[in-house]
Amino acid sequence: MPVIEYKCPNCGGGMEFDSGTGMLSCPSCGRKDDIGQIPDPLKQQVFTEDEVKEYHCESCGAVIVTEPETSATSCSFCGSAVVLSERLTGKLAPAQVIPFAISKEEAMAAFKKWCRKGRLTPKGFMTADRVQGITGVYVPFWLYDLHNDIDVHGHGTKVRSYTRGDYRITETEHYEIYRKIRLDYARLPVDASQKMNDELMDKLEPFPYDRLKPFKTPYLAGYIAEKYSYTDEELTPRAKEKTAPYVESYIASTVSGYTTVNLSDKQVHTQVKRSDYVLLPVWMVYYDYNRKPYIFAMNGQTGKIVGKPPISKGKVAAWFAGISGITFLSLKLVAWMMGGGWL
């Protein structure tokens, strides 16, 4: 099969996915086509040698997959130039995709607005005039449906104190605790990219999973899509790790009402009911401040921005000085009200 290209039937120009309309759009003449009406050549949901190309970044080694007409002039992970390498063979295509809903212009405007809100960031950073690049990336995720069978054993007490005559009486009742719990988690996301920072990707959640669509190659037009680095089996331990705090919280909610609780045994058996390979939209922003690179990520559907901006030492010092001054005046006021005077 030849390389997939989407040419405008009107003018012959390259067509791209338009996040504003959700359609395949021609930037040259304005033609828009409904993606649902476009035949998808990937009927078997398998990437073959002629359908996509693999690029390797010479700087950081990232492996990314793009449509042939995508303008991939820089690595979405480190900003360096990428070069064409060998073709991909035999890789499964994603089952579903959440298309971009925020355009590049909207993403840039939102990022600049976000920079201006930083109370402790340097003044120079707040101008947001050092953006080195912004790239739309479809990040590979596995969505898990998990079933948990949980058995909990423990001991609880209920303590009651009351007064009878001249005596203060305390009664302690002891209980053996047993809970058998079944918990199901649907569409738990775990990013499958080796190059993406897991903490950064986790903070981008939630994604609107009601907007998942069956995968079609036109959604990739004009963007970059990375292939998954880890299989669903390899990431199952991390999926279980992500649910652990929620499991603990739910168990705690079932043993409320006791004065003390000691859980002596907890058995959690997790089963993967389903795992789907999906692509989720992320804008990667590369910012250079004082010759130090900063990477930020934006949810391509909700606009949520995450990342660690630089901190101004001067603003932090001024903030602490202000807090210290207020605390000092408060203590002086309390001392004066108690008759101690202004010392």
Task: Report the uncertain regions.
Answer: 67-74, 80-90
Describe the biggest sheet? Answer: 11 strands, mixed
H/E series: EEEEEEEEEHHEEHEEHEEEH
* Spatial shape: elongated
The rounded Rg comes to 28 Å
How many helix segments?
5
Average pLDDT: 78
Number of strands: 16
Tally of structural domains: 2
Strand % is 35-45%
- How far from one another are the termini? 87 Å
What structural category characterises the helix and strand content?
alpha+beta
Helicity range of the residues? Answer: 10-25%
How would you describe the overall organization of this protein?
The chain is α+β, with helices and mostly antiparallel strands and 343 residues long. The chain has two domains: 16-142 and 188-228 and 277-311, no CATH class; 146-183 and 245-272, no CATH class. The protein is built from five helices and 16 strands. The strands form three sheets. Strands 5, 6, 7, 9, 10, 11, 12, 13, 14, 15 and 16 form an eleven-stranded mixed sheet that branches. The chain has a three-stranded antiparallel sheet with strand order 1-2-3, with no helix packed on it. Strands 4-8 form a two-stranded antiparallel ribbon. The radius of gyration is 28 Å and the shape is elongated. The model is unreliable at 67-74 and 80-90 (pLDDT under 50).
What's this, in brief?
By secondary structure, the chain is α+β, with helices and mostly antiparallel strands. It folds into 2 domains: 203 residues, no CATH class; 66 residues, no CATH class.
